[in-house]
Amino acid sequence: MENKNENIENEGSQIQGRAEAASVAEPKASGETELKPSSYRWVMLACFSLICFLMSFCQFQPAFFAQDIMRDFGVDTQGFTWMTAFPLAVGLFLALVIGSLTDKFGLRRSLFVAMVITSAGAIARYYCQSYVMLLLMSATLGIAATFTTTNMTKMAMTWFPPKQVGLAVGLMNAVGAAGLAFAQGATGVLFADYRSAFLIAGIACAVVTVIWVIFARDRRLTPNVAVEPEEKQDEQKKGSFKTVVKSRGVWLAGLGGAFYNGFNITAGSLLITALVVYWGTDPVQAGVMSALFTIGIMVGDIALPTLIPRSRKAKVLCVLLPILFAITIFAGWYINVPAARYVLFPLAGIFFGGTLPIFMSYPSVLPEINHENAGTAGGLLTTIMMAGAVVLPTLVITPIAGSDYNLLVILSTLITLLNVIPFALLPSIHREK
Q1: Can you tell me the distance from the alpha carbon of 20 to that of 35, in angstroms, rounded to the nearest whole number?
Q2: Residue 7: inside a domain, yes or no?
Q3: Environment class of 1 (CB within 10 Å of its CB; exposed 0-12, middle 13-18, buried 19+)
Q4: Which of 113, 121, 227, 389 could form a disulfide with 261 if both were Cys (CB 3.0 to 4.6 A apart)?
Q5: CA–CA separation, 116 vs 432, rounded Å?
Q6: In the prediction, which pLDDT does 3 show?
């Protein structure tokens, strides 16, 4: 039988050809063959992360013009909130389908189609004259956003060696968080009104779509998946959906992401308001504290998924993450001293931020998940995460807490503290190689 290492795609690009040529095969101790990492993985990471940044920017861009949008389209705060919730609803209902489609057609082609639809919808927001049309066009942002969230692990497993999977997922999450921060801080400076903001953002989506289709590529064999007999590959493809649905690890990782969103969607997004209303904190100081918390999240996104898998105590460290987060966020919340919060909130952000990419990269260490069904696994994981983002804030936290921001922070933190359970039940993320 012809060696399957010859199946690596070559689309003719000279730079891609040189990068792929570096991925020569080397024998493993077990007698199987595994691909060396391709230097082109960093190009793929840059292209994918650029889309993550842009999707976050587009989704949270309208927040600066909330009053203008509500006035012009005749809606209240709840109506405006639906503009943010609709893209999340796309993730809740389509993530599993999107993951399966990516496994079937490949990431490059699937994400290109998603970006075309999203670009069209993002530009169309400029022309919307009714609230319903604005809502529907905003929902298209969730298509490409769901593709990126669902396929982070697949992209990392496909292009990166095992030790770098957590780093890759963390970088993509951090860049997405940077898009949110940029939307909050730069929208008012860059754009005079929401229509110009919508138009420029839509054009940016179209440009990034072109960049993706030029530079992105699919890779049939991954650097961390050994070549298997053809019969076994066919069997895996046929049973990939069933395998993923039966995977206890994917369900636990998704549950961890859902608990993460318990804080992220409620107290995390309302931290400034909570500090101002409950503690009487100066709005400018509250903004700085919230920004420091976000910076901490970005640091945790990158650092912890890189460092923790290297430790033989990785499982213990993962269990400690939600505990340390709860301690530091409660300390920062109840110690009503600005100087203390300037230290405690970024620390809490680090422990909080490191949690999500670790959960999202967990499928890469599960024996039943490989490059053939990683998209489906990411789809199921994202579906559970988005369910937590919708159900926990609207049906659990907010109905109980009401307008009591102190209780809101307590409930949100306690739900995130429940991540001790999936971390304790999941296998260690420690990687020997």
Answers
A1: 10
A2: no
A3: exposed
A4: 389
A5: 40
A6: 46
